[in-house]
Automatic annotation (TrEMBL):
Domain of life: Bacteria
Listed GO MF terms: DNA-binding transcription factor activity; transcription cis-regulatory region binding
Originating organism: Phytoactinopolyspora halotolerans
DNA-binding region(s) in UniProt: 40-59
Protein name: TetR/AcrR family transcriptional regulator
Keyword Nucleotide-binding: no
Amino acid sequence: MSAEGDPGRVRPGGRTARVRAAVLTAAGDLLAEQGFDRLDLADIARRAGVGKTTVYRRWGSVPNLVADLLAEMAEQSVPRTETGALEGDLQANARLVQRTLSDPRQGRLFTAIIAAATCDTRTAEALRRFYEVRIDEWAPCVQQAVDRGELLAGTDCREVIRAVSAPLYYRLLTVGQAPVEADADRAAQAAVAAARAGVFTTQVDEYGRADSG
């Protein structure tokens, strides 16, 4: 696909799929090792063991390649865990985020991508899409809690999920420390407490419908 297209939406098979997988792995490795600013398509091609012409023709630019990498990461992420209780579900979500951010490769990879997103609009959009996919995956856990009566009607399910992972990213990016399991459990407990207190609840009418006004 040309640089004008969206390589993140292409899912080829056969040799093309193997080339794509090798290039994305190489891009992730180099991004974790040296950051976004030093990422170069020719270096990625060498690491992947493919011709640089193939990489330039398909992705065209580093931001396009990073966008494809994020799309692949979103699709390959672990699906949500459903325990039948809000606290168990959010703890599972928090621990998944914690394990990702504490992984030596993945933690550096996300740090590099987040840093790049502050100055590159293509990367910022790709990162936003990545998190939208993950929030879409986990938000039903919160809706199920609403349906069970654990939370009030009108609870913003997506905001609850964001509140779980936000403290873990904050620790990684501002303190410079990978979160540990205790941090994950604390983040989940705080999100549960806030959700039960109605912090994420919009105003509802007498029929339990959210008031968007």
